[in-house]
């Protein structure tokens, strides 16, 4: 199958779409990715890409076609321009850059923004190929929940845009069952909606794993590792409040591995609140380094703000945490909480409840190493059953074939 993936984010940026595109090539598909210039999360184009753009035209057998865009910067207005510029430039240049490519199917990888649906639909129409749209970030709900857009009329307008995109796709996939309920509000033909969750990255090899040298080893320390986006949605103020409650427990160390919009704020708060001895803030590392940081963890931390839209979300790190076989400390609601509880893979606190998170940490601290180990093993077994990478991509291939069959039937009837 000749597959075009449309994604604003791609290697050398760290996202699951890199893993997926590589796997599809290994399964015998011809894969092309239409993407932008790498600038996430720093907000500026990667210097090495600027110096050596020809080094980034191919990735593990994938042909990478890039269009210009305005980098994210650090302000909300700059981010809006970043989103808009990719949609405009990929619509303007994408069809020409892809003119010699045979495309059987277009797959849109929709993190923010939803506007990647526009070039996906355009190329699909030109190439007469079905479009499969994978929703990983609910619009307009996420914009409202994060406080990015507060205007009612603008949210309604974005909702109409979402409906326009969904209606013109062959299949629309949601990353959780909760997503499907919201997506149905923008899609008159709910028969095209499908559940397709993220898979767990399987890079945690305990036998051959090397510990991250950036983390000093201190005997008797209970390490709580948070890995990923350090943003508003992760509710770091609630994490800080929990850390203050546990400040006198010198054995507890919070290790933050990642980058994002509130990283500078986090540094300031840790310093101003006298938590410098409790936190180790390491910044961003490549995705393939994450297992070496997980290996230091007594528990892995996942959090989301209290909001109905975040309650419908399964954070991608949940699957990876479970598969790592390390107990999870969670402060979130809804689908993410359900998965961790169902797996019996850790302790779950309600979103935004710092007191409950602090209590959960103390409960896990008092468990024996064997009991903590069992929680991790429970999570791993659940992830292997529910979120195995191979099974997930088998399912995605079946969805691709379904989209092709639907498109073929529609063509024959027209």
Please specify the SSE layout and strand pairing.
Layout: E1 2-6, H1 16-26, E2 30-35, H2 47-51, E3 58-59, E4 62-66, H3 76-97, E5 105-110, H4 117-127, E6 131-135, H5 141-145, H6 152-167, E7 171-174, H7 177-183, E8 193-195, E9 222-227, H8 236-245, E10 252-257, H9 263-272, E11 279-283, H10 290-294, E12 299-303, H11 308-311, H12 316-324, E13 328-331, H13 334-343, E14 346-349, H14 354-366, H15 369-386, H16 389-413
Parallel strand pairs: 1-2, 1-5, 2-4, 5-6, 6-7, 7-8, 9-10, 9-12, 10-11, 12-13, 13-14
Antiparallel strand pairs: 3-4
Explain how this protein is built.
The protein is globular, with a radius of gyration of 22 Å. It folds into two domains: 2-199 and 388-413, Rossmann fold (3-Layer(aba) Sandwich); 222-386, 3-Layer(aba) Sandwich (Rossmann fold), CATH 3.40.50. It is α/β, with parallel strands linked by helices and 414 residues long. It is built from 16 helices and 14 strands.
